[in-house]
Every structure is written in structure tokens, then in C-alpha cells.
Amino acid sequence: MNHDDHRSQSVSPAQTTDIQPQIDPPQGQTPPVNVTRKPLLFVVLAAIIILISLGSYVYAQSYNLKHASSSTTKATISAPTASPTKLLSTLPAVTTEQINGLSVNYLTIPINSTCAAAGIGACSAVTAMGHYMALDTTGIKYGGTINEGGKFIYDGQAVYNGPYSMYFALSKNGQHYIYTLDTSTSHSGGNLEVYVDNKLVQTTPDTSNDITNLTVSDNGKNYAYVMGVSGNQLIKDGTPTYTNNDGVIADFSSDLRQYLAFVGPGLKSSSNTVSVVLNGEIIANQRTYNGASLPSILMSKNGQHNLYTDGKTVYADGKLVKTVKGVAALALTESGTYGVVDPLSNKLYIDAADHAIPSQFGAECNPGCLDGVTVAINDDGTHYIVGDKTLPLWYLDGKQINLSDKKIVGTEFVNGSLYVYRWAD
């Protein structure tokens, strides 16, 4: 109860015994001062209590301020370079135009295309669903005599800038990233470090080891890769999942629960064959192999469909669906719609339908159909784009389009629109 409340309270009948009756003084005398001792005592005590409380409060505030200042100083210590990065909630900005009635979104990656064409140590990028991650090696000299490295850029944000950068990838929804660092420039005697969203998740010796087929799940909680002297172990969340001493290449569903792999001596020599493994079980033997780790095999994002080729035949969900003269690129959607580019036949096959493509694509199949040609299709196969970044040549829904001045990194259909990823110049 505060003192204002005490003064404003009404007097109850039980309290009237403390009130003296008023008596008129004799005539000619000054009335005596009626001093109420009890309320005065309360006032004095209250004042003392207030002073004590105020002194305690001032001391407490001084103490807290002093210690808060100390805590703030400790919090300003720089965070480790490998601290987790807060992912961006919005997609990178794009510019849009209409081509052949289709909305085309151009996403510019802030790296010069000259760096991307530099050969060993060149800048590079991966893309997925309107997101990108790039390695900018501008100013970095490679050769094992200094710290090889560069800057990892995710959706415009530098997430790592330093030595030893190696491999990197995006989740299939583009919302998470994974990369590796090698703490030795000679790639021997150091450690391979695996980071997911800039958080260190695994460290392993780099001697006689390498990491390929790097991937991370759509929720960012799981990761996988192939590691070993010849890439002979499939690793998931740091634990070996499948081993073949002759080598492994693999592709995963977006949650990493399903995978498709080529295994066997055919990965080392074209005179040998490979086996096809689906989730740890061999589903086909005696398959030849055309030499590319991807996209010779593809797993759909939802894990319900798979596609692979030996360069002459194409298998969808384990069934032979097409015999071709050569395969330059593959595509596979979540509905199971597949696309196969056969430049030697001047054809793009989308399921049972075939579409004519320019004969210039055939130049990329001499001697092999592996480099330069890309294909993207929307989920039901009603739209497609076939491109060659080296010619350059781009073919959208049966019509040639001019993207030659765009320095293209890659293309992809995202929610009904075509995304074109390009270098800054």
C-alpha cells in the first residue's frame, strides 16, 4: 500500500477510538494545537524506508550497469569464420522479358565471365530454383605454392572468403549450400572440412582422398558426397553408405533418402562396364559408361523417378525407353517426364515425342557428347530449352533465340517461368 492510498482511505467505525472529541477552550485562551502523534510517526518511518529503498536501487543499478558493460565487451569478440550464415528470405533480383510468349527471368551473378573462362582456378557457379552459389577466384593464383582459395557468394552474400576453397553445391530447392575446404595446398597431409550453411559438419584427412557429387538436403539437415582414392565410398552425414573399390558416382533425391549410382571398373576404363545401384540394390549389370559423372544418371527431386544412359540407350525407372546415336544432355522432372538431347540425330526427345534441333549441336558430339550442351524442360514437358554455351546457340520451344550476349551460366524452369543465369558482363 503506498502512502497516497493510506491518506485517501475513509475511516471505518472501528478506527474512531483514536479521534479525540473537539472541546472549545475557555474564553480568552488560545486553542491548543492538536498534534496527532501516530500519523506523524508513520510519515517518518515511510520516509526512512523510501531513503533505504532508493539507496539500494541506486547501488543495484550501478552494479548491473558495470556488469552489463563487461558482458557487452565480451560479446563484441569476432565470431568464427565458420559461424552459421542466416539464409536470405527472398530470391535474388531478376530482370524479365517475354520471349515466344514465355516469361524469361535473367539472374545476374556478380562475377566477370573472363574469370569463368580462365581454366584452372576459374570462377564457377551452381544454380537451383532461382538461387545461385558462385566461387570468385579473382586475384587468386593457383599452383600449389600459395594458399589456393577464393570467395564463396550465395545469392549476392559473401559467405566465405579465404584459402583452401574446393567444391560446393546447392540443395535442389536452392535454399541451402554446402562446400568443402582443404587445409593443405598440396591436398595431402591436411584436412578436408565440410560446411553446410557455413557450419562445420565434418573433418576428414585429405591424404589420398577427394570429394565429389557433393549435395545437401532441401531442409539443410543432411548432406552426402562420394569420397576415396577413386571415389569409392558414398558418404551420408559422415557415415559410409555404399562402397565399391572400383568407384562410385551418384545422384540423390532432394531429401537424400533415395539415390541412383553407377559403380564398377567401367568408371576407370571405357572398355569395362558398370552396375546400376538404386538405394543400395543393384538393378542392372553390364552397362557401358560414357564418361560423365552427371548427367549420365539422374534422380528426380522427389525420389520417385530415375534416368540413366550408357550413351547409346536410355533407361527411365529401370526400363529401356530410347535407343540413340549419342547423348549430350539429360533432364528429369518430378512427374517422371524426361528429356534426352541426341545431337547426332538432331533430336530432342521428351518422353515419346521428338523435337528437331539445329545440326550445329552435333559439333559437340565429336568425339563425345559431353561438354557444352544443356537442356531444361518444365514439369510436363510442354516447354523446353536446349543450349550450347560454347557456340553459343539457344533453342526455345522449337525457335532459335538470341542469348549470345548474355554469357550464360545455365537455364532452368521455375514455377512456370524460364530462369536464365548469366555472368555480370
Verbal overview:
The chain has 425 residues and is mainly β. It has a domain at 84-113 and 325-425. 12% of the residues lie in helices and 40% in strands. The chain has helices at 3-8, 37-75, 113-116; strands spanning 95-99, 102-109, 124-128, 131-136, 149-154, 157-163, 165-170, 177-182, 191-196, 199-205, 211-216, 223-227, 233-236, 239-243, 248-252, 259-263, 274-278, 281-287, 297-299, 306-309, 313-316, 319-323, 329-332, 338-342, 347-350, 353-356, 373-377, 384-388, 393-396, 399-401, 408-414, 417-423. The strands form eight sheets. The protein has a four-stranded mixed sheet with strand order 1-2-32-31, with no helix packed on it. A four-stranded antiparallel sheet has the order 3-4-5-6, with no helix packed on it. It has a four-stranded antiparallel sheet with strand order 7-8-9-10, with no helix packed on it. The radius of gyration is 36 Å and the shape is globular.
